[in-house]
Amino acid sequence: LALWQGLVAVFAPPPFILPGPLDVALATAGRWPFLLRHAGVTLLEVGLGLAIGIAAGAATAVFVAAFPRLGQLVWPLVLVAQALPVFAIAPLLVVWFGFGLASKIVMTSLIIFFPVASAFGDGLRRTDPAILDDVALTPATHWQTLAQIRLPLALPSLVSGIRIAAPLAPLGAVVGEWVGASAGLGFIMIQANARMQTADVFAALAVLALMSLALRACVDRLALLLPAWAREADDATLSHKS
To answer: How many Å apart are CA 202 and CA 159, to the nearest integer?
Structure first.
């Protein structure tokens, strides 16, 4: 922030090109009630989209694990859908679902769906074969093995997927608002950018960044509800990926 302010002081670019952090702070403080009201709209879209996306992604992963033969047909379709640029279909979502909350919720859900389905599905597929071999010697059915062995062991992978997806949720809502909306942080950015009020754009970005950090913090807090062994496994998985 100090370097940014120093560069603005030395080169003195026009405020509509690059305002200093002090100007952004003043814009944020001066329009805080306005920003907070629109942030509430974006947060509602993010919350609903996050819940739907997590539920759909987890359900898809469980379906693929529960029905392997059907999963061989469903999973390639999921991968193909993931390869499509989600942002490119944002205008279509507005046409299909309107300018209200629905199109933003669907956009957010799509962004959340793929990381959750991929991570959870990977966790379900990677159950230790030695454990499955031991379970095969018991009277446990396929469904009991899935519910009591594979699902619990895959919980760390599910949490890892949510950790990746949660900070992306505001992005989905904002992109939907860019395409067409009458409220929200994305709406503020579009309107402020059209009026060359760049400080207001940065102010909305700052609120959006705080929202993403808060969502990640909430996921980390929810991860503490996992059993101790699952938390340790999750930490080990993240360390290995790092």
So the answer is: 31
Over residues 88-123, the pLDDT tens digits come to: 777 888 788 877 788 888 888 888 898 899 888 888
> Around 85, how many Cα atoms within 13 Å sit in the side-chain half-sphere?
5
Tokens matching residue 149: 């062995």
CA atoms of 235 and 2, how far apart (whole Å): 35
- Report the alpha-carbon distance of residue 170 to residue 172 in Å, rounded: 5
Say if CB 204 and CB 189 are below 8 A apart.
Answer: yes
DSSP 8-state symbol, 226 = S
Nearest to 207 by CA among 36, 47, 50: 36
138 has a pLDDT exceeding 90: no
CB 112 within 8 A of CB 172: yes
Q: Using an 8 Å Cβ cutoff, are 99 and 182 in contact?
A: yes
Q: Residue type for 126, please?
A: R
H/E stretch holding 225 reads: none
The pTM (predicted TM-score) of the whole model is 0.81
